[in-house]
Design a protein that fits this description.
alpha+beta
């Protein structure tokens, strides 16, 4: 059980897009990991398209409009995001004990910058600006989140999507191998991310232009 806490926080309300590589299965973004677009593209590059058929039957990138508001005890330390926990089959697996830190801070949304190499990926990705997120289902709520311990994020009901086939078709010869070539080339990877962004813009021309927030998780302050 969570300790008693104020019903809301004074943290800023952040509105931005999160992306997730997913199969044709549909389920809400609860107890899962998500990413910014660069983060999703690295995951596809590193773990999905290297396998035939693709890992987990992943066939598309979906995009949710997300609103987040940090719980008060996290915001007091100057953070909008906590540690980015790993969720495997919708179970939080760390780093550390998830329940302990959720009890300490509330059900925060987590993030990690790829550049920090913590907690993962812990290698150079060659996907500049990549970010991963964690979304604890207990923090999801309807409407704008209040920052209460159990109301730290909300999401659009129906996500936008592009398929891996559509992405591959943007390459010179229209193949997946051509699209995903040169995985260690920063400029080639930036072009892949831009191709995905362009596809979303083409399919959803009326979608809002939203600014991605800074992933300001602070290791030292969080684990103090």
């Amino acid at each position: 059980p969570l300790p008693s806490s104020p019903g809301s926080s004074d943290a800023p309300l952040l509105t931005f897009y999160m992306y997730r590589a997913q199969s044709d299965a549909s389920y809400p973004p609860k107890n899962v990991n998500t990413a910014n677009l660069a983060g999703a593209m690295w995951y596809l590059q590193h773990e999905v398209v290297t396998k035939t058929p693709p890992k987990f039957g992943i066939s598309r990138i979906i995009r949710y409009k997300i609103q987040t508001k940090a719980p008060a005890r996290l915001h007091e330390l100057g953070m909008d995001f906590g540690v980015r926990y790993a969720y495997d089959s919708q179970k939080c697996t760390g780093p550390g004990d998830c329940a302990t830190m959720y009890a300490k801070y509330g059900y925060f949304v987590g993030c990690n910058n790829f550049d920090s190499k913590y907690p993962y990926p812990d290698i150079a990705t060659h996907y500049d600006g990549g970010v991963w997120y964690s979304l604890p289902g207990e923090g999801a709520c309807e409407g704008s989140p209040t920052g209460a311990d159990d109301c730290t994020y909300s999401y659009s009901g129906h996500p936008d999507e592009i398929t891996l086939e559509e992405l591959a078709a943007t390459s010179e010869n229209g193949t997946s191998a051509a699209f995903w070539a040169s995985p260690d080339d920063d400029e080639a990877n930036a072009r892949k991310v831009q191709a995905a962004a362009d596809l979303f813009n083409k399919k959803y021309p009326d979608s809002e232009l939203l600014t991605e927030p800074q992933c300001n998780f602070d290791f030292a302050k969080f684990w103090q």
